[in-house]
Design brief:
Elements: H1 2-24, H2 39-55, H3 61-72, H4 78-102, H5 111-127, H6 145-148, E1 155-156, H7 161-164, H8 168-185, H9 192-201, E2 204-207, E3 210-211, E4 217-218, E5 221-224
Antiparallel strand pairs: 1-5, 2-5, 3-4
Helix pairs in contact: 1-2, 2-4, 2-5, 3-4
Length: about 230
């Protein structure tokens, strides 16, 4: 059964990859390795996960995608695994967001219409730089994806953090956000203990210190909880 599903996924993902290459003009290789470490590769992986969620909603898309990368493909280039896992997640996110936007109207669309909608959105995301198209140049890491893709404006500050919780580089980067946030909150800007309480309740997250793929050390901070 899984072999038949794999054949279907490869067939349909390649069909849509060629279709949207012609429509949107993203990069694709010629000959063997048409979709390998390029735009077409990124599109294909995001599309396969979207396809599973739309056409085979009873199959766990994430489990199937992770199995392929962690079990079947883990002996290959780890940077390529990282790229595929990242793009798989984008595909699932697009369908999740589409279901939220369409609500009850989601079921009124045919599977073909939904696949075309997500294909356009995958291309838009790729043009916006959300997908990884070169595993050896892009330093973003899948394990940090939940945090790295959030916007700076989603950061939540506590009173006085600009001075006692940041180094000089961070103060320069976040000063505008901090003062805009402080002006908006006025005298009600939360304390560090209040934010810790919100983290305990699950209302927000605290990102612990970590090192990004490009070697930059990121200090701990509070953020709004992502919706994906």
């Amino acid at each position: 059964m899984f072999d038949k599903l794999r054949e279907e996924l490869n067939r349909e993902s390649l069909k849509y990859t060629y279709k949207y290459h012609k429509i949107r003009g993203f990069k694709i290789n010629t000959g063997e390795g048409t979709a390998h470490n390029n735009d077409a590769d990124a599109f294909k992986h995001a599309f396969m996960q979207a396809y599973l969620m739309i056409v085979h909603p009873n199959h766990p898309a994430k489990t199937i995608g992770d199995y392929h990368e962690y079990i079947e493909g883990w002996n290959y280039d780890r940077k390529e695994n990282n790229m595929d896992l990242w793009n798989n997640s984008i595909g699932r996110e697009i369908v999740h967001d589409l279901k939220c936007i369409l609500g009850r109207n989601y079921s009124k669309y045919s599977k073909g219409e939904l696949l075309d909608i997500v294909s356009e959105q995958i291309c838009d995301r790729m043009e916006n730089g959300d997908l990884i198209t070169d595993p050896h140049k892009d330093k973003r890491l899948f394990k940090h994806m939940e945090y790295d893709r959030l916007k700076d404006s989603d950061r939540v500050f506590y009173n006085g953090e600009l001075y006692d919780g940041m180094d000089e580089e961070e103060r320069e980067r976040f000063a505008d956000y901090y003062f805009k946030y402080k002006n908006r909150m006025q005298s009600e800007m939360p304390s560090k203990s209040q934010l810790d309480a919100n983290v305990s309740l699950g209302d927000m997250i605290y990102v612990k210190n970590y090192v990004r793929g490009d070697g930059v050390r990121v200090h701990g901070y509070y953020r709004k909880r992502p919706n994906y």
